[in-house]
Amino acid sequence: MSHDSAVPAPQAPHPAAPAPGAILTETEAEELLHGICFKTGPPRLIGAELEWLVVDAERPGLPVPPERLRSAHAAARALPLHSSVTVEPGGQLELSSAPSDSLTGCVDDLRSDLAAVRAALLPRGLVLRGLGQDPRRPYHRLLRSPRYEAMEAHFDHTGPAGRAMMCGSASVQVCVDAGQEEPGLFGLGRRWRLAHLLGAVLVAAFANSPGLEAPYAGWRCARQGNWADIDSRRALAPPMDAAPRSGWVRQALDTELMCVRSYDGDPWAVPRGMTFRDWLRGGGLPGLRPPDAEDLDYHLSTLFPPVRPRGHLELRMIDAQPGDDGWVVPLAVVHALFDDPEAAETAYRVAKALADSYGHAPAPRNPLWRSAARHGLADPELRGAATACFRAAAEALPRLGASTRVRDTVAAFADRYVLRGRCPADDPPGRRLAGAEVRP
Length: 440
Known about the structure:
Elements: H1 26-37, E1 46-56, H2 66-77, E2 84-87, E3 93-96, H3 103-121, E4 126-129, H4 146-155, H5 161-168, E5 172-176, H6 188-205, H7 222-228, H8 244-253, H9 276-280, H10 293-300, E6 307-310, E7 312-315, H11 328-339, H12 341-356, H13 367-375, H14 380-399, H15 404-416
Antiparallel strand pairs: 1-3, 1-4, 1-5, 2-3, 5-7, 6-7
Helix pairs in contact: 1-8, 4-5, 5-7, 6-12, 6-13, 6-14, 11-12, 11-14, 11-15, 12-14, 14-15
């Protein structure tokens, strides 16, 4: 449930948005989605959103009282950072980078910001930990707002996965440009498909949320299980046999509304079984006001597919990583596999061959993604694909100007995990909340 961070790409022309508050037609909604979700141009920007658990430095296995969490969040927000700071419903802290035209710039800014945040939290006896799913129970929602009240009510209809996702999950979300309008290696269609083909490999390589209880006991990436199970459609990828824009338009408009905002202080409506397209066509609750463009923007913020188009492409399937610098590895690897021509070609070929053998059901509910979440790199086919992709990324990083420190961090991760068929979830349990390191 990432908050907005900006990694914009050059904007393709699209129709002007309707006037604020104007009733939105179905045609206008489709045109807006075409224009705002995929902004095309030569790939040049990179960004990341890093979510962290906030834990007690001395007693990391115990919940942190709400007042201490709020103090930590206030201290982080008061800092002069390159990144924006936001808070997730369970108190997870998120740093969203500014868009950068180089991997080095993005990494350096985030490292500097993280050092400042850690220094502000340490006197309060708190530290940041990179773990995909919080093992501390029970989950408690810290944020009280109409959005999260409605979100919780919506997800409670489908079981506990929604609350676990809201209050206990953390990720590394890597943002890359959508690509060029023209076909080719860096074209929008190719990069959109690559992101989905590569997703299972990234889930397996960076799995760091070991399942401790049913229904995900024994899984390497229980966080991915929660995302797959939050409701019937909200976290699904659109069909890959459709063009990116048309497939996403159908997916967005035909997904059930999570809520309808109220402007008079009343609780937000939580309609059941009503899609945004139904709302546009006048269906749904009696007396419900018609939607406007702001309602469409809000609806988009409640969709959580593995790859979310927000002008750029936001890759959402990677667990938060262990150690101070663990997050650098997925950022560098994704950058290399998308923005270096040779590495992109290798990644596409390897991931497509693997994905094709498992069929074409939408991620994350298809068998390949399920295997990645359950087994990580213990799955031999995923291990082979990850090994090839990490090798291609390692060869590409010098060409992309990556620093020696970044290259060494990626190499250390590959040696410790990928080449041995392991992932961070395979580390001993005592190392997780205590903060296992990934160092060259």
